[in-house]
Amino acid sequence: MSEKRKPGEASEFSAAEIGALAHLYRGEVYRSTIWRTRLDTTTNWSVVTLGVALSITYSSPEASPLPLLLVGILILLFLALEARRYRYFSVWRARSRWLEKHFFVPMLRDGDLHTEENWATILAADYDHPTYHVTYLASVARRVRGNYLWILLIQTAAYVGKLIVHPTAVPDLETFIRRADVGPLLPGELVLGIGALYILSWVALAVWINRVDDRRILERGGTATMG
Question: How much is the pTM?
Answer without folding.
Answer: 0.83
